[in-house]
């Protein structure tokens, strides 16, 4: 079993939940002690409509816990309607294993998530598609842009018009 402890919960106490909430993820070990760390407060991003969390995961006997598993647990814990509005990232396993720490963002809606999240995180969560470009196209664009300075550089980077 793995104990997941939310170290930083939002100031607005999303949907009546308090700080320091924890829940179990099934694993290979049956008994786990809880973390003694004190929960702290983090800000609520009003302009983003998102809760910011630092997630502390205790997982003895397991190498790590998958992000999909964490998203599922956070969905149930915070009673989120759409699991696509939850983003977990930057998880690092502590030396010796058994514990990982990472960040999480819970947006009020998927539209807000698409508006404020970086493109690479949207691609990782399946909310956007990656545009594949060839090496030659990227190099041609770079070399065209090198010849021009200022505002015109963005137009020069576009594909050359055929006559």
UniProtKB/TrEMBL annotation:
Record has Nuclease as a keyword: no
Pfam families (alphabetical): Ribosomal_S24e (PF01282)
GO terms (BP aspect): translation
Basic residues biased stretches: 138-154
Segments of this protein annotated with the region Disordered: 131-163
Database matches in SUPFAM superfamilies: Ribosomal proteins S24e, L23 and L15e (SSF54189)
MF (Gene Ontology): mRNA binding; structural constituent of ribosome
Ranges in a coiled coil: none
Keyword annotations: Ribonucleoprotein, Ribosomal protein
GO annotation, cellular component aspect: ribonucleoprotein complex; ribosome
Record flagged with keyword Ribonucleoprotein: yes
Family: Belongs to the eukaryotic ribosomal protein eS24 family.
PANTHER family: 40S RIBOSOMAL PROTEIN S24
HAMAP family the UniProt entry points to: Ribosomal_eS24 (MF_00545)
Protein name, UniProt field: 40S ribosomal protein S24
